[in-house]
Design brief:
A hairpin with a 5-residue loop joins strand 3 and strand 4. The chain is built from three helices and six strands. It has a single domain, classed as Phosphorylase Kinase, domain 1, CATH 3.30.200.270. Strands 1-2-3-4-6-5 form a six-stranded antiparallel β-sheet. By secondary structure, it is mainly beta. The longest helix has 5 residues. It is globular.
């Protein structure tokens, strides 16, 4: 689904695992980096979550954002700090919009 819409596997763009525990298999349109949206799939190609990555500097600067809408219904949202990783090297926050229940979220735990 993601590839038909122009998304690329994050693991094909930067040094990042094909399956990342807690988020699954990530896809992004390169031109939307670093904000995203990143689409997260389980190992059976089911959309689990949409992630936006917002730089701490942009939050501190009170920057406004306009980003493409996420796909799917929302069950719950997690927001947490990340010090940086390949593809988004600067400190940032992950805004994870889960399209599945907390119990179903376990499908991307490992």
């Amino acid at each position: 689904m993601a590839e038909r819409e122009g998304y690329k596997r994050v693991s094909d763009l930067v040094n990042f695992p094909k399956f990342f525990p807690s988020l699954g298999i990530l896809f992004v349109k390169p031109e939307t980096l670093p904000l995203g949206p990143f689409l997260c799939f389980d190992r059976k190609d089911r959309l689990m979550a949409t992630v936006y990555m917002v730089a701490v500097k942009d939050i501190d600067d009170h920057k406004a954002f306009e980003a493409p809408a996420f796909a799917g219904a929302t069950d719950h949202v997690n927001i947490y700090f990340n010090p940086g990783h390949p593809g988004v090297d600067s400190p940032h926050y992950h805004f994870v919009i889960w399209h599945v229940t907390k119990k179903e979220e376990e499908r991307v735990a490992n």
